[in-house]
Design brief:
This protein has about 425 residues and is mainly beta. The protein folds into 2 domains: about 290 residues, Methanol Dehydrogenase, Chain A (8 Propeller); about 90 residues, Thrombin, subunit H. The chain has 2 helices and 33 strands. It is globular. A hairpin with a 5-residue loop joins strand 5 and strand 6. Strands 1-27-28-29-30 form a 5-stranded mixed sheet, with no helix packed on it. The N and C termini lie far apart (about 50 Å).
Length: about 425
Amino acid sequence: MRDYIARKSLWFAGLLLVLSIAQTTSEAADWPQFLGPNRSGISAETGLLDKWPEDGPKVVWRAEGGVGMSGLAIAGGRVVTLIQGNGNQSLVVHDAKTGKRLQSVDIAPTYRNGMGNGPRATPAISGETAYVFTGEGVLAAVSIKAGKLLWKQDLVKQTGGKAAEYGMASSPLIVGDLVVVTVGGRGATVVACDKKTGKIAWKGGSESCGYSSPTLLEVGGKSQIVAHTGSATLGFDPKTGRSLWRYPFTTDYNCNISTPLAYKGNVFISSAENHGSALLSLKPKGTAFSVDEVWTSFGRQSSLRSEWQTPILLDGKLFGLDNVGSAGPVTHLNCVDIKTGKRLWQQLRFGKSNLIAADGKLFFSTMKGELVVVNVNAEKFDELGRMKVIGTTRQAPALSNGYLYLRDDAEIVCIDVRKR
């Protein structure tokens, strides 16, 4: 009898281990927010295509979408994004396997802007709730399963701010029980709200909002919310919103857009408009930090001028889109050594596009609507293949369970990028 009980106990323990591994694998394969699981544009997925199929990767499904620049978030087998149509900005939910629309929830009226209509920010998924930020600055929480608006707050109005010239573009960041966005109100460059109620928990900063999304980084020996705002990069205590440091970073039109990255405790930032990049070192100074420049690369000869694309950082190498001129049409693809800021190689006139990375590959969505796959290679440009998929887009791809998701102003597309 004891042997039987022992065997059953071992069997049960094994089952729990298998279920735990399965759950971990499933969660690891989600793309629950802007720039993926760690807001770095990098997925831990493997087993993806290593050679270009003769007929290109298989398109699994296409679904009707809508106008907007919001990216795609995927979790629990559901794809969510913000679209504009029928007089509203709405959260739509699609089945990740079939593309079937499951929910559509109106958040705010139509948003119009000369630089493109519709919402800009990508939803963030936490459990069964999606957090969204509209083009004019309304933060809202939506039950994905029930298709129900839980709460919404017009943060720009509440903080006495003014919507950014080209629209509010901060993708919500979930930090514990808080949802964080860049707003640019009075004393409220960055605002953190309670996830359950939407009430403001803290606010801080006195900069214009810019167009970047805040991120949680382990830098300077401390976990910090880092925000690349319209005129400076700022560090905040995640729980209290206390200001930790400030680094001036002024560009034309407040066009700081890419998301900061962490490298060995340092902070990397980059902007276009003929500006450039910097790697910053943070040193404790009382209850705050002093900021030193490890290196800078500014001006027309900069090694990297990121426009609206966040570079990918892999093994100490930055792979990023380098925009020439003031919002000019020419964009190169550069590989840069983050330790020194020196350019290692450059693919001239690669074209305006956005990118993520997984399994030793860079996946690009170009403004021409192409999917381009490039092998990660610090020595040379090494393209695997490309194909036309959708219309004009600025959104980066999203990756979940071997499937790549793209969208434009008309549809959402799912592509199988698993190794055949």
